[in-house]
Amino acid sequence: MRTDTITAIATALSDSGIGIIRISGARAIEVADKVIKLKEKKKRIYDCPTHTVHYGFVVDGAEIIDEVIVIVMKAPRSYTREDTIEINCHGGILVTNKILDLVIKNGARPADPGEFTKRAFLNGRIDLAQAESVIDIIHAKNDFALKSSVSQLNGAVSDAISDLRGKILHEIAYIESAIDDPEHYQLEDYGIVLSGKLDLILDRVNELLKNAENSSILKEGINTVIVGKPNSGKSSLLNTLVGKERAIVTEIAGTTRDAIEEQIRLNGISLNVIDTAGIRATEDKVEKIGVNKAKEYLEKSDLIIYVIDASVSLTSDDKEIIKMIKDRNVIVLLNKSDLTAIIQEEDLKKYLDKKIISVSAKYRTGIEDLEYAIEEMFFHGKIKMNDEVYITNARHKSSLLCARNSLGLVKQSIEEGMPEDFYSFDLMNAYEELGKIIGESVEDDLVNEIFSKFCMGK
Fold first, then answer.
1. What stretches of 140-278 show up as alpha helix (H) in DSSP?
2. What per-residue string of b and e applies to 342-381 under the rule 16 or more CB within 10 Å gives b?
3. pTM
């Protein structure tokens, strides 16, 4: 592990009210003392107690660079468990870069992406799952993702995994002890006892994996495609959902030629909405490309919102769309409910047995019913963040699947009457796979790859 002193700008590099330059490492206080002159008479950074805030100036020799607030945090009571200094200066690209250059000139080196959090992990302040939650907090796209990431930072996933590992390790230790000391540890009927315990462990693993299925949608958003034939009101619906004129709306059919993408928030989660070209038979080369793209987006969607102009009769284009979407997650909107309806819900049910809602995108009626239908389809009518542990990281899910497989092999060995030392091998595999989630058994290359995705200064 590198233990030299690092520095980076910890805030966005733009014109803003404040900028923060972070310094961490064995020489952090020494470096800060060289560039900071405190307002307090005859006082230096060396003299400051830990977890104190001070007012002063960043200076380069006799030149004052900026007026600053300095926070002093001494090891081990800091984010990295190293001596850490945070210089709070005026925001702005020029001033923050000048201070950063000065700190580097006086003994620190530029930090790698995520290196502060990496040091927090390597120094034992947080485990790998908690470290990954830091970047998830920064990238959170909705309320659920944020709350879930904060929960993981506070140890929700780590505690669940550690509990499972503790139970598995207990059985490994018992088997090894019984093999080494059969007089004091009995293995008679142990397979039956172990099988019962494994059922409980597998129930918990399966529960975490079940939550992982919905968690990915909650974290990344529901990939939603709006389809329909031209002039059915798709673009008007998109504008209504987004809350602004995002798509061009005219009475001319075929106005939308390319897909328009927007992300909207729905009661704490995200919809990644794509408004596609109207699907119809056409000889127009450009429009035909848009229609083919719309069909491609359908294949990749989690949810299809099928918009029908209820004021006109169904056509062969509608029937072609119905054929493409009948086996997918679909909500049908009978749009233009402010006009005289030609198509009724019972008419459409003959062709497509899906949730049907009457709406007017123009006057925003029925939109709340659409929101509830989405909640009902994906989250059984209620989106909430409770005390459950949510697995939102693909790496964590992969390790859980491998652990489940190894535990299944132990069950198989018990059923086939294999010797107990066979149990230990697969139990240890499960233990190590779970360890990868919290960083107990993980390769350095993987650690480096994970932290390389962090932003600079974090």
1. 143-153, 156-180, 190-220, 234-242
2. ebeeeebeeebebbbbbbbbbeeebbeebeebbbebbbee
3. 0.72
